Structure formats: C-alpha cells, structure tokens
Amino acid sequence: MKNIKVLWSIIILxxxxxxxxxxxxxxxxxxxxxxxxxxxxxxxxxxxFVLTEMRxxxxxxxxxxSAAADKDIDRTIKIAKLLTxxxxxxxxxxxxxxxxxxxxxxxxxxxxxxxxxxxxAVTKRDPDHSLKQVSIIMQNCIACHGAxxxxxxxx
Length: 155
Ligand code: HEC
Known about the structure:
The structure is a single chain. The chain is built from six helices and three strands; from the N terminus they run H-E-E-H-H-H-H-H-E. By secondary structure, the protein is mainly alpha-helical. It has a single domain, classed as Up-down Bundle (Four Helix Bundle (Hemerythrin (Met), subunit A)), CATH 1.20.120. The protein has a three-stranded mixed beta sheet with strand order 1-2-3. Strand 1 and strand 2 form a beta hairpin. Helix 2 runs antiparallel to helix 6. Bound molecules: heme C (HEC). The site of heme C has 19 residues, from helix 2, helix 5, helix 6 and strand 3.
C-alpha cells in the first residue's frame, strides 16, 4: 500500500512538472507592454543576441532587394544561402523557452520561407520570383514587430 502511495506521489509530481513545462512552452515569459504589445522578458545578453540577429536580417533583406533589382540571381542565391545557414545557427534554448507559442510559429515560418527562397532561386533562377518571395517573407517581420517587444529582466 505504502509503495503505491509513493508511486502516485511521484506520478503526480511528474505530471505537475510536465504541465509546468508545457505551460511555459505555450505562454513564454511575457508582460503586457505600455503600448499594448506583448513584451518578452529576456536577460540583457539574450536581448542583445536577438537584436543583433535582427539587424543582420534587415541588412540581408536590403541585399536581396538590391540583387533582385540588378537581376543578379547568383547574388540572390548567395544571400539566401546565408539566411538558411543563419537559421541553422546556435539557437539559444533559453530564449526559445521564453517566447510564446505564436512567436515561435512566426519564427519557424520565416525560417521555412528562407529555405524556399534559396531552393527556388537555385531551381527557377528567376529574380522576379525571388523578389516576390522576399516581399512575402517581410510580412513575418511586420506581423511579429506589431505584436511583440523585447524587454530586459531586472536582474
Ligand atoms: C518572430 C518575431 C520576429 C520576426 C519574424 C522578425 N522580428 Fe525583428 N524584432 C522582433 C522583436 C520582438 C524586436 C524588438 C522590438 C522592440 O523591442 O520594440 C525586433 C527588432 C528588430 C529590429 C531592431 C533591432 C535593434 O537593434 O533595435 C530590426 C532592425 C528588425 N527586428 C528587423 C527584422 C527584419 C528585417 C525581419 C524580417 C526579415 C524581422 N525583424 C523579423 C521580432 C521579430
């Protein structure tokens, strides 16, 4: 009897832990920002990491538009490849854990689209098609910035 009680206690404890992790995965660590957006709370280092990645993204988007304007498909392929490699880079698990599910979805979506941009550029070699894809990709930038902010945790 005693053993069964101990077993149940362990099962319940594990269940609480699993539910806790699941809840954290869905909600992330967030506050409501003064402007109404959702503020994701990160450490200073994590926030700087994300913002540095973001500035890199903006620069790559400019380079893609420039390459398409010059009808230079080889340059488009080169930049698109960099973007797919970026997304494979060391993803910080601690940051992912703090972002809500909808943020993770937008982030996964944009990385999938970078992959398509690269694959299509290689097979179709059509700068107009790539430019159209860049404009669709940028809808993710707009959607995410409209919904989220990054703030530093107090510590
Ligand atoms: C999944 C969400 C998400 C996506 C997708 C996303 N961003 Fe961001 N980005 C953010 C957040 C959150 C911030 C911080 C905004 C704030 O705190 O006001 C940010 C900030 C930035 C900044 C400011 C960097 C700084 O130093 O302050 C730039 C530039 C930027 N993003 C570019 C882009 C571009 C270009 C794209 C699309 C190719 C993109 N982002 C896609 C979430 C995203």
